[in-house]
Amino acid sequence: MAASPALESSASLDSPPSLELSDSFEEFRRAASIDAITRLAREVLLDPTYPTVRAWTRAGRGAVGCFPVYTPQELIHSMGLLPVSLHGGGESVEISHADAPLGSFLCSISKSTLELAMTGLMAPFRAFVFPYICDVSRNLEGIFSRAVPNATTHMLHLPQNFQSKASVPFLVAEYRRLIAKLEKAGGEPYRPERLVESIELFNRQRAEIAQLTATQRAEPGKLTLTESYLIRRLGGLLPREVHLELLGRVRKELGARPNRRKDAIRVLLVGSFCEQPTLDLIDLIEQVGCYVVDDELLQLHRWYDRVEPSGDPLENLAATYVRSPVDIGVRAAPTTKAAAIRQRVDAADAQGVIFLTAKFCEPALEDVVLYRKALDERKIPYLHLEFEERSAAYEQSRLQLETFVESILFD
Amino acid sequence: MAAAKPEPAFLTTARDRQREMVEQYYSDLASAGGPKRPVAYMLVGGNLTEIVRSFGFEVVFPEIVALNCAIKHVSLPNILHAESQGYGLDVCGYVKNDLGLQELGGQTPFGRIPPPDLLVCSFSGCYVYVKWWEALAEKYGCPLFMLDVPYMRDAEPQAEDIQYLVTQLNEFIALLEKITGRSFDLAELRKTLARSRKAEQGWVDYLASGKHRPSPIEAYFEAVFYMFPINVLRGTDVAADFYATVNEEVRARIAEGHYPVPEEKFRLVVEGVPPYPSYRTFWDFFRKWGAVSVAATYPKVGGLFDRGFLHDPARPLESIAEYSLGAYVNQSWPLRRQIIGEYIRDFEADAVLIHGIKSCRSFTAGQGDLRDRLIHDHGIPTLYIESDHEDPRYFAPAQIKNRMDAFFESLDRRRGSVPLPVVNA
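^ inputs. structure came back:
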């Protein structure tokens, strides 16, 4: 396989890319089992050259990179563009260019995302959207415009006032600003009827994912967290039509899978809503004896159950986001943090909470203090681990996790 | 015998007047709460002080309290206490100072800070504001109003942003009426805004005097000192009158030839929050080289008054909306770069000094990119150094001094050979 010119100029990649997908994503259409799907997903995730984007754009189609944690991807899809969830460089990107422009004391995901841009690996993208979820994400947009001068960049201001009657009209206006940018970036002109179609497609995708996570919660012996995670992660990387087909096959297989119970504790995994832990770390949590019955990984498909397709679709999309009950570190709480964490523990029937926060992620770190206090008052056990994208040694984490699990099992 | 080296000039009447105002403010706060006056906590960026005061609230700005703690070298115990409660090393120093101080009872060397009855979060340019105010709401259980201020991506405010803000302001006023049982007095607000406008014009005149050669003001270290009335007391008579006193003294400096840096050698634009725990030491590193800041971004955190905005009593809520958009860190990086470029040009600066803050991502994330652009795209000598605005553990004086000495030395050498460019960055 020939490397792209961008790759040849890259100095920071640990290993060359290996995955070349067909334009029609046949590899995923043919993957008949969860094993086959997750194997492919691992290959995609470990290849920082965005194989799904390269396959999509090879035929002249456009892709838009969406920084976590929320972008109206239905809207991007309706304009003929592939919305792609960005989750940094993962384990395989060494930071050698992005430290200088960004400065120290910043999260890995901001640095590795910029590194990928500065080394040319994001050249296949036409546009990037950075929602205002924290100051780093917001500022990254202004830096990207220089790192990727040919691409369109947009900072999306998501409302933080969820009580105002003006929040929905404002978000509609924000979406119109985004539409104007995407049209300039080569997206098809915005058409409400196309958005309705996209909303219906995404509703089906969300329903499938809701079923997947419900299985994870009710029958945790049926699929591992890693499997669930990999299947969900593909949902932000593949054409949604391809992902939806794949989810149907997953559902069918899960229906026939036995619920193999093991001696494990039920935990809530909190704090990894933006930067993602490594697959090894996700594996480890289960290896030591945890059933993760609720998590904040990949909020993408879980902001709301569905968007009403009838009526004004743009307004519906905005209203559904504003009314979303999701309470995570980058969305101002409609209730107190104490009430929120207790409610989630109860709803998931969790025995403990693992806070898994990215290093330097200030919104997550500040919430953890409030959550811990609330859990202390109810005597609910918890453990706090910090991670970085390129964390490699997990012995310390393993020891902490094992101690945590044993303390609950033998309590 | 060699001539005596000229002494740096400080404002005297203004300094004394400001000291009185600060003492009075904290004294009033210490007696607030209880039966006297309710207390609202507010943030500096995009604050709604005129509206809140019109309902009879005393206003506490925890950021200002935090910087006052740092400058008086009492921030560390508060920070350590917050860390003992679980706030990590990477959390904003202002937040840790305040939450630590709250847990310790609110006592400072300048008075006791009363707990809030109302939390007003003007989410303008800093996401930590949201988290901070959530933590305070959790602790005190008092009402929290979230003013969601859209991020500025265009040079001019957009109609939809103003409409969003004005609606929220009306909702805020309704909440204040409900809490206090008082009716909103528009005529009174207009009068308050007229006083704000007078203070703002005086502040703008003060900042503009940095264009003189030599500069009669120190636009970073000295201006930071005189930010207190424009941020904390805006809308009051004392603030409205204060800057006339300041500017009178500045004019006297020019007339008498007494300057804050007597032998001005380098004119700097400074970007970033000061290292408050080592404020004096840091300033000395400038003065030693005859370096004066002629313009700075940090004094604009409360509003970009120097770029044409003044509160307008004829358009009260609309102008408050426009004001809230104008906090410096609420400007996108392209806008920030434009502002800095115009300062370099208009104030005839020789160089830029950037002070990055380890625990402030809002100000700091991207300052390295700014440095790179200024140097490589525009040929502006630029130095980036890093410490913290609150935490004295992160100020390494020897290292910072070495880097600044080397920078000024190279500027000195360069001045002898190559003319410095003045461009719009």
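Chain A touches chain B through 55 residues (CB under 8 Å). Strands of chain A lie at 63-66, 82-85, 127-131, 152-156, 265-270, 290-295, 352-358, 382-387.
thumbs up if we can close this ticket
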